[in-house]
Description:
This protein is an all-alpha fold and 175 residues long. It is built from two helices and no strands.
Amino acid sequence: YTADSLRVFKKQHDEEMKRGADDEGGFGGFGGFGGGDAPPAAPAADTKPAAPTTKQPAAAVSPGEKGESADGTPIGDLVSALESENENLEIMMMLHEQECLISQMNEAYKEFDIELIKLRTDKIEQDVELKNGDLRIILLFEELLLLKEFEKERKLFAGGFIFQVVRQGRNVRQD
């Protein structure tokens, strides 16, 4: 349900309330589904004269009994009208609650998507830092190998130079 469909429903409900309880026709204002416990419509007033009877006050009539209220409206119609009014209000409240839940759900989806994008971005940044770290380690290891190689050559060269100096020193003494 959307906000537009709720407005249309409210407009229809208001029109039904303006027409009155006699025009509702059926369970909860939905025609064709029966009228609940409501008695059939009373015959026209001019067909039979009303016999004088002693009536109990409307408050003393139990919901199951048939009678009339103080204004002459059949009690079954009042109960039916109140029931349909309550059902319509309950439907409106449930539709509003459903709309609120749907909007909360959509908001949660949006927040989840935003957080997911942030996590993906962080992961990519950390992957880049990890690859850069790996490259630095490889570079430092290669530099270490080169330094070891140069150290060996220096030792050989220095050892050979010392050997040559010692040999030249012997040669000089011998001369």
